[in-house]
Design goal:
The chain has 680 residues and is α+β, with helices and mostly antiparallel strands. Helix content is 36%, strand content 19%. Among the domains are: 169 residues, BirA Bifunctional Protein, domain 2 (2-Layer Sandwich), CATH 3.30.930; 74 residues; 81 residues, Orthogonal Bundle (Arc Repressor Mutant, subunit A); 86 residues, no CATH class.
Length: 680
């Protein structure tokens, strides 16, 4: 082609001129933020928004960057269709969702799945089973291992309102997840488990935070908030048919006296927006008789709770506390139902006055028999325990230790409550800083090296001192102590009192301690050192009432005394006083360990040897055993195995070599991370 036929004309410009259409090489940070915010909010921000106001022409969008991620277009279309009321009346499905950030090395994901698989969740009260897209028995360990390095994961609860009418809840959940994959444009790695232990059967779904290409899975907030719910409602409507007028009327009538936040409450709050609710016929409002009857009936219920007031006939004022108060009342009702279900499973019934909610967070700890477990926040790790107390009352206690809650078996004896005593770390800080007014980690370490401070069993000196520094960092943020430099902390004179008050104000959750994994019947006939034996010889017995579980404990103690006499560990004087041998607990524990060790020796084809006081033990930590005398660790070597007292510090070393020293009295000092070798 000749030059004359070409339309190309080169027009050199000035040096460094990139042309009128080119973006500048750099832009200010503020401009970058404004451009990103405008993109996330669907348009440029107005000056009112920059000052914290909402968007023009409506309420501000919810969430931050809510339009970023997969599924946004689908969510927009579904919400538009729902607002226009197209299609049949859909059946309601409640969706609860949570995005969980993962911490490297944390076992929270596995612990959550283990708890979802707990006993008593199936239709027949059996253990729950994980399932997936194409399997009825998903491998929990494999799923956790695949997601070990994921940045996050998604947890959903899918609860159709008419779930009791679904013939196959598992198939329903699979259909919903298949629709999610189509909407998000990627295959999802997920597992689920169905629960039937509440009034409404529901499914728990956990989705990995990776797409089918291994990239981070980002789902638009609108799709999580509304899209999943609308898709599930479509599937429920397809399964059961559209909701009829008669069904809707029956459901709304049931909400009139409900002790929870209802659809009627939400509709009235949205209509009034802080103004009086006028239900007079002459008000000129177009409202069906049935609708007006529902509202008046509901308002009369709310009036009994002090959440609504009729100023003049037909004109009502709603309390600002209506929604939070009714939600709290609904949660309390769920707790009471769970307590009654736990009692019914044991064939027992108690008066309403004997039910106590929120025990163990202050005052005396709760001691009793564990009769029920439930997830309070089923997307998280808050556990509710139902404890039949030794004080004759039934307690509901909230804890946050999902692992120990799973380990505590139904029927075991537990103690729940915050420890009113000062923390050991705070006591050590106060002792080291006494007379100086300062805490110095280097000085604390020297006291340990010279033997003036003894370490707890299994503790390392550096880690021990570092734990005190971390505690001081937390107290510094609370304004209790002051850091002068890297090795000096200013400690106030009333440090112990202020640290104790700080702990008392934190959270509502209680601590849990398993006193015995055996129920009362097994303890009465056991040959080991049981919780009943400790109560018999203790000078400070736990106060109990002669009603409920307290009465059962009193009878069990009397039967246990007769059993100890029969076994030759106690005797009864002519005047009827029972006297136990001085070393009762040690003798019973040794007796149980010898019997258990002999039985295990046949199974493992390895000799058993009893560990003696003052002996140094070493071996591979292969597992744990729950006996009447407590929890024991099994240590194996090439020649024999031993059963020694278990401590939480060794849990992370399962399958590894560990070393310890048996102390007088049956305790053990573990030496984790220390290597034994030849020395001069």
């Amino acid at each position: 082609m000749s030059d004359d036929a070409s339309n190309l004309r080169i027009r050199p410009g000035r040096i460094r001129d990139r042309g009128r259409g080119a973006r500048p090489r750099s832009q200010s940070f503020i401009n970058q933020v404004l451009r990103a915010a405008a993109k996330a909010n669907g348009g440029p921000l107005t000056p009112a928004q920059l000052r914290g106001g909402g968007r023009r022409g409506g309420a501000p969008r919810k969430g931050r960057c809510c339009r970023i991620g997969r599924g946004q277009k689908v969510a927009d279309a579904l919400k538009r269709q729902d607002a226009e009321g197209r299609g049949p009346r859909q059946r309601r499905v409640v969706i609860k969702a949570r995005i969980v950030r993962h911490k490297l090395g944390s076992g929270a994901a596995g612990a959550h799945l283990r708890y979802l698989e707990r006993d008593g969740t199936t239709r027949d009260g059996g253990q729950g089973e994980l399932y997936g897209h194409d399997t009825d028995r998903a491998d929990r360990l494999a799923f956790v291992e695949r997601g070990a390095e994921d940045r996050h994961s998604f947890r959903f609860i899918v609860a159709p309102e008419d779930s009791d009418r679904l013939t196959d809840l598992r198939g329903f959940t699979r259909d919903v997840m298949s629709q999610l994959e189509a909407d998000l444009g990627t295959k999802l790695d997920w597992v689920a488990v169905d629960h039937f232990n509440t009034g409404h059967p529901h499914s728990h779904v956990v989705i990995r935070g990776k797409d089918d290409l291994g990239n981070d899975l980002i789902i638009a907030q609108d799709y999580i908030t509304d899209g999943v719910r609308l898709r599930a409602q479509e599937r429920a409507t397809l399964e059961l048919g559209p909701e009829t007028d008669l069904e809707l009327r029956q459901k709304l009538q049931a909400e009139i006296g409900a002790e929870r936040f209802t659809r009627i409450d939400r509709a009235m709050i949205e209509e009034t927006a802080g103004n009086p609710l006028d239900l007079r016929p002459e008000a000129g409002q177009v409202r069906a008789d049935f609708d007006r009857t529902l509202r008046i009936g509901r308002l009369q219920t709310l009036e009994r709770y002090g959440l609504a007031r009729e100023g003049e006939p037909g004109v009502w004022m709603l309390s600002e506390r209506l929604e939070p108060a009714m939600r709290e009342l609904g949660e309390r009702g769920d707790i009471i139902k769970a307590m009654h279900r736990a009692l019914e499973r044991r064939g027992e019934e108690r008066a309403a006055g004997s039910l106590v909610i929120g025990s163990g967070t202050e005052g005396e700890p709760v001691v009793g028999r564990l009769i029920g477990k439930r997830l309070i926040d089923e997307l998280g790790d808050r556990i509710g325990l139902v404890i039949d107390g030794i004080d004759g009352r039934v307690h509901h206690v909230e804890i946050g230790e999902i692992d120990i809650a799973k380990e505590a078996r139904i029927g075991s004896i537990v103690q729940a409550g915050r420890k009113p005593n000062l923390r050991a770390a705070d006591r050590a800080i106060a002792e080291v800083s006494q007379g100086l007014g300062e805490y110095r980690p280097s000085y604390h370490r020297k006291l340990i090296d010279f033997g003036h401070v003894h370490l707890p069993p299994g503790a390392d000196a550096d880690a021990y001192v570092d734990s005190h520094v971390r505690r001081l960092e937390a107290l510094r943020r609370a304004g209790i102590v002051e850091r002068l430099d890297g090795d000096r902390w200013l400690i106030p004179d009333d440090f112990e009192r202020r640290a104790l008050a700080y702990d008392a104000q934190r959270g509502r959750q209680a601590n849990l301690r398993i006193l015995s994994s055996y129920d009362l019947d097994r303890q009465v006939t056991s040959d080991g050192a049981t919780w009943l034996d400790r109560q018999l010889i203790s000078r400070n017995r736990i106060a109990r009432e002669n009603v409920g579980f307290g009465e059962e404990v009193t009878k069990a103690l009397e039967t246990r005394m007769d059993e100890l006499i029969r076994q030759g560990h106690a005797s009864r004087t002519p005047d009827g006083v029972v006297r136990a041998r001085a070393d009762l607990l040690a003798t019973l524990q040794r007796q149980e360990l010898e019997r258990t060790g002999a039985a295990l020796a046949k199974d493992h084809n390895l000799p058993f040897r009893m560990a003696e006081a003052g002996e140094q033990i070493q071996g591979k930590f292969t597992g744990t055993l729950h006996l009447a005398s407590g929890k024991f660790a099994m240590l194996e070597n090439a020649f024999e195995f031993q059963l020694v007292p278990w401590r939480p510090v060794i849990d992370d070393h399962l399958g590894r070599e560990i070393t310890g020293m048996i102390r007088d009295g049956g305790g053990i000092e573990w030496r984790i991370g220390r290597v034994l070798g030849l020395g001069i």
